[in-house]
């Protein structure tokens, strides 16, 4: 078991480092093409920082196809990781960034940004209500994400452009190659993480989704945490807000959508009746906070952090099993 724990930790560290490399290179490429900070946060960075969740879903789904007997355990692990990461970001990470920096959204943009967060979580919940996400439902989630991307491209791409950083052709080729190589190695590391996590769940008296929420979900959200904090420190509030909102749309629609398109997922009852209602409720609370003042104040940030602690305590005590 010690070997599996070490493999799990090393795999998570590798994924986080590689995700950071991919994100930084994507930022340089986006700046070269003169894209806006909000657009980068909602698209490039949200996808880049969601790589751990996406890789976990895709590689886990491939393992389900290879061994259908792992459907329940791997589904719980994948969905728990996805939802746990989102709730951690919407509460703890958003609150922490709100304490050290600024989380702000103009009231006129609330529906298009935070509204998308609520809509994405609600669509995922609807797809989960039957207890199984099939390939048709996965297709709907992916189409919804494509529509979201088209909308963002039309409304945000050239607003408040970043300072352009002109790169040579050789540098552009290097940045793109680095991103692709990071993705390839990340796929290998993510596969090791999934295999180690599956083994540990089988050996420990803990449900797969709870392990995903507590361990993998929090770990998978670290790229968003580091990116948002760095952006807040550099007073790039449009990027820090955009990456957190965008990632929470990307995770359920693109991440789970891709995975479910491969194998489908059995959805644990606790996800349907506790995790997703909490996720939607948290998104509505964020909407309310930002609607009042167009930014998150320190007390509201503290409330979000405390709510995450309460969520974890209730999750671990009252919902120890998946099915």
CATH level-3 fold name: A middle domain of Talin 1
Largest sheet: 2 strands, antiparallel
Q: Biggest sheet, strands in spatial order?
A: 1-2
Shape: globular
Tell me the count of domains. Answer: 1
Helix-strand sequence:
HHHHHEHHHHHEHH
| Rounded radius of gyration (Å) | 19 Å
CATH superfamily: NCX, central ion-binding region
The low-pLDDT segments are: none
Number of helices: 12
Strand content: under 5%
Highest-level CATH class: Mainly Alpha
Helix content: over 70%
Task: Write the CATH architecture name.
Answer: Up-down Bundle
* Content-based structural category: mainly alpha
> How confident is the prediction overall: mean pLDDT?
85
Intertermini distance = 25 Å
Describe this structure in words.
- It is globular, with a radius of gyration of 19 Å.
- Helix content is 82%, strand content 1%.
- A two-stranded antiparallel ribbon has the order 1-2.
- The longest helix has 35 residues, at 169-203.
- The protein has helices at 2-32, 37-49, 51-66, 71-100, 110-128, 135-156, 169-203, 208-220, 222-233, 237-263, 269-293, 298-318, and strands at 132-133, 265-266.
- The mean pLDDT is 85.
- The protein has a single domain, classed as A middle domain of Talin 1 (Up-down Bundle).
- It has 12 helices and 2 strands; from the N terminus they run αααααβαααααβαα.
- With 323 residues, the chain is mainly α.
Produce a short descriptive summary.
The protein is mostly helical and 323 residues long.
Draw up the topology in text.
Layout: H1 2-32, H2 37-49, H3 51-66, H4 71-100, H5 110-128, E1 132-133, H6 135-156, H7 169-203, H8 208-220, H9 222-233, H10 237-263, E2 265-266, H11 269-293, H12 298-318
Antiparallel strand pairs: 1-2
């Amino acid at each position: 078991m010690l070997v599996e724990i070490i493999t799990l930790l090393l795999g998570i560290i590798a994924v986080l480092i590689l995700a950071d490399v991919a994100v930084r290179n994507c930022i340089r490429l986006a700046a070269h093409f003169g894209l806006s900070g909000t657009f980068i946060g909602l698209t490039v960075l949200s996808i880049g920082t969601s790589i751990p969740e996406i890789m976990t879903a895709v590689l886990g789904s491939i393992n389900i196809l290879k061994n259908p007997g792992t459907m329940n355990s791997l589904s719980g692990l994948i969905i728990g990781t996805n939802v746990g990461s989102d709730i951690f970001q919407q509460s703890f990470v958003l609150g922490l960034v709100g304490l050290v920096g600024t989380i702000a959204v103009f009231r006129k943009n609330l529906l298009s940004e935070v509204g998308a967060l609520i809509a994405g979580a609600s669509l995922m919940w609807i797809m989960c209500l039957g207890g199984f996400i099939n390939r048709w439902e996965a297709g709907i989630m992916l189409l919804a994400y494509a529509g979201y991307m088209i909308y963002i491209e039309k409304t945000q791409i050239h607003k408040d452009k970043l300072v352009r950083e002109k790169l040579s052709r050789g540098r552009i080729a290097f940045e793109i190659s680095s991103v692709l190589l990071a993705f390839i190695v990340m796929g290998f590391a993510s596969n090791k993480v999934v295999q180690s996590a599956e083994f540990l769940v089988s050996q420990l008296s803990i449900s797969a989704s709870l392990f995903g929420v507590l361990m993998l979900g929090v770990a998978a959200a670290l790229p968003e945490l580091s990116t948002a904090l760095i952006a807040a420190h550099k007073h790039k509030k449009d990027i820090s807000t955009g990456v957190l909102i965008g990632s929470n749309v990307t995770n359920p629609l693109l991440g789970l959508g891709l995975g479910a398109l491969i194998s489908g997922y059995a959805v644990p009852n606790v996800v349907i009746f506790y995790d997703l209602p909490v996720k939607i409720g948290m998104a509505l609370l964020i909407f309310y906070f930002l609607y009042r003042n167009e930014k998150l104040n320190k007390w509201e940030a503290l409330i979000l952090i405390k709510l995450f602690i309460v969520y974890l305590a209730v999750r671990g005590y009252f919902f120890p099993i998946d099915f």
